[in-house]
Design brief:
The chain has helices at residues 3-15, 79-91, and strands at residues 22-24, 41-52, 59-73, 97-100, 103-112, 116-118, 121-135. By secondary structure, it is an alpha+beta fold. Strands 1, 2, 3, 4, 5, 6 and 7 form a seven-stranded mixed sheet that branches. A hairpin with a 2-residue loop joins strand 6 (116-118) and strand 7. It is elongated.
């Protein structure tokens, strides 16, 4: 029950979807211009909220957002992008549990914000709200 395993569970669950997308991970070099404006890609971020001490069992509840920013070249339309986004949203549905190293993370809900053009890419942000329990330190 740790920060590391929470992150691993969320990232591994996305990788397991095998969508064929290039992935920009936190704190790793990634240059989308190397894709030559021909391939879609995502960036993954975990945005944890404060932890709440809800139990006497030395566990803190953490709720947060697993943000998936989906990028596709501008001017290609959004049909294919929306199909991929639908696949992601259908996977991250209420009460799904993803795990790593025996640590469980429960999906609360998911949704996406309005898409917008940005530096030659159309971007849609997918927010996956999760909760998990972390050993109190």
């Amino acid at each position: 029950m740790s920060d590391y395993l929470t992150n691993q569970a969320l990232v591994a669950s996305f990788e397991g979807l095998a969508l064929g997308l290039h992935i920009a991970y936190e704190n790793r070099d990634f240059d989308p211009q190397e894709l030559r404006d021909s391939a879609s890609w995502v960036s993954l971020f975990r945005l944890p909220n404060d932890r709440d001490s809800l139990t006497k069992a030395e566990l803190d509840e953490e709720r947060g957002i697993f943000q998936i920013s989906y990028y596709t070249p501008s001017d290609l339309g959004i049909g294919s992008a929306l199909e991929t986004i639908d696949t992601i949203l259908q996977y991250y549905k209420h009460n799904r549990t993803v795990s790593a190293g025996g640590h469980d993370v429960t999906i609360v809900n998911s949704g996406r914000a309005i898409g917008q053009n940005e530096n030659g890419w159309w971007r849609a942000i997918i927010s996956v709200t999760y909760k998990t329990y972390i050993q109190r330190v």
